[in-house]
Amino acid sequence: MGTTIEGVYADFMRYLMENTQRFFEMTTPNGTEIWARLRDTIVIILATPNGWDIREQAVLAKAAIRASLVTKENVGQLLQFVTESEAAVHYALANQDGDWLKKKDIFAVIDCGGSTVDSTIYRCVSTAPLILKEVCPSECVQAGGIFVNREVRKLFEKLVQGSLFSDPEIIRSMTSAFESDLKPSFDGTMEEYNLKFGSLKDNDPTVGIHKGSITLSDNDLRPAFDLVTKRIIASCFETLIKQRTKYVVLVGGLAESPYVRRVLRKELAKYDIEMIMVGDHWKKAAGEGALISYIKQFVVARAVKATFGGCVYQNYDKKLHRDRKHMIQVYADGKERVEGAFHVWVKKGTILQGTFAHKLPYHRAWDATSMSDGDLIRNLGVVGIEVFGWEGDGVPIWCKDEEGKGVLSGMRHICTLNADLSALAGQLRTKNEPGGKKFYRVDYEVCIYFGGTQLRAKLQWKENGVLRESPVAIMPYVS
Ligand SMILES: Nc1ncnc2c1ncn2[C@@H]1O[C@H](COP(=O)(O)OP(=O)(O)OP(=O)(O)O)[C@@H](O)[C@H]1O
Ligand SMILES: [Mg+2]
Questions:
Q1: I want to staple 69 with a disulfide (CB 3.0 to 4.6 A). Which of 64, 99, 343, 428 is the partner?
Q2: Which domain holds residue 72?
Q3: What is the 3-state secondary structure (H, E, C) of the chain?
Q4: Which residue's alpha carbon is nearest to atom 22 within ligand 1?
């Protein structure tokens, strides 16, 4: 009732932060003093599912602000995102003996989780520094650990049918005993497995129950696991083979199952693919890998999945803008311009690496003849540029319709970069446009750069020779 997803995340985050602080202060000598000193510079790294992009990140960022993990001002610097599979790669590289990964190797990360199995394929572009590139979009299949439990519950229902044990409450305790005892140990090497679920008084030889334990045959249990392993094989293997994958890094809770591991290892071996286990039973691959990726500043090259640009007043170009000839306006600087044009900053398919950075000069102009100082300050206070993303091919000419209101179909409004340039009011000189009218002009730059794992944008301008910046906006790189 009235609970938002942002609120739920904010509660979680607050809880985690409070307890992290408590734990840190209790277990670190001089912990309270150290925490207080470093609190405002703590970088929070969130490992998120592979398919998440700016929509989800924006919710998490708002939640993090609401939970006071970061502030509105420092969120761009102190809140970082990394995908779970990327974090797993870093974890696997840091925790494996030998340098298994060589330049040009293709490898995959398969994350066998509770409800989904996600696979991502990377190519190693270079090992020092480590540069990885996603080869193709991640795949996700509904084949996690809960499906094993679902099958096993059906098995229990079938086995105890007609007996006193055919009771939802008892089936539930059997399934929960399976989850904690048998699921982690089942390896498919014995003929029978015992599962303790009740008390010594629970007996019924006709359904294989003896002193609170039920006997299950290998043949009974295998199909429950096979359902999932078969789905994983059916969904991921074709791509693994097609992409000539050399290694598969297996992570996630279900990958801890000795049976699942064995089946997948055997199946992969048929195609000469080697399996790399990271031993993630403490569930550290995502968390620790996220930290490693930040500390070591590993570079992952990514291809931008959409074309990004700003919505601008563009100089009228009859080759491009003929269809809106009737919309030409004479701008304050005397030039003929059209509104709502798409000015491309980064094209779809551009490979981003640590060094990627672009600056684009922009300016705004206002007619000075009728402008009071107050109006000028007000105008300068809200200089902004709307950022749009285009996921299709090619480069559209327009972002918006003729009226400048409706966004064209296929264009996605990402964010608006805003800057308060009002402090410049006193320094601005008027200029003369070709027709002799006076106008004010203010210059600023849009900076687009690859900040570790994300494409970011901000505005920059000079105030009395001092460089100023707007808050940083994060562009989604995945469509
Ligand atoms: N040692 C183990 N042996 C077998 N299965 C295990 C083991 N440990 C955890 N699991 C299973 O792994 C699943 C949870 O895995 P994980 O924690 O990676 O999932 P998740 O990240 O929460 O889910 P998802 O990624 O689908 O959102 C559960 O189904 C659990 O039963
Ligand atoms: Mg998971």
A1: 64
A2: 5-83
A3: CCCCHHHHHHHHHHHHHHHHHHHHHHHCCCHHHHHHHHHHHCCEEEEECCCCCHHHHHHHHHHHHHCCCCCCCCHHHHEEEEEHHHHHHHHHHHHCCCCCCCCCCEEEEEEECCCCEEEEEEEEEEECCEEEEEEEEEEEECCCHHHHHHHHHHHHHHHCCCCCCCCHHHHHHHHHHHHHHHHHHCCCCCCEEEEECCCCCCCEHHHCEECCEEEEEHHHHHHHHHHHHHHHHHHHHHHHHHCCCCEEEEECHHHHCHHHHHHHHHHHHCCCCEEEECCCCCCCHHHHHHHHHHHCCCEEEEECCCEEEEEEEEECCHHHHHHHHHHCEECCCCCEEEEEEEEEEECCCCEECCCCEEEEEEEEEEECCCCCHHHHHHHHHCEEEEEEEECCCCCCCECECCCCCCECCCEEEEEEEEECCHHHHHHCCEEECCCCCEEEEEEEEEEEEEECCEEEEEEEEEECCEEEECCCEEECCCC
A4: 114
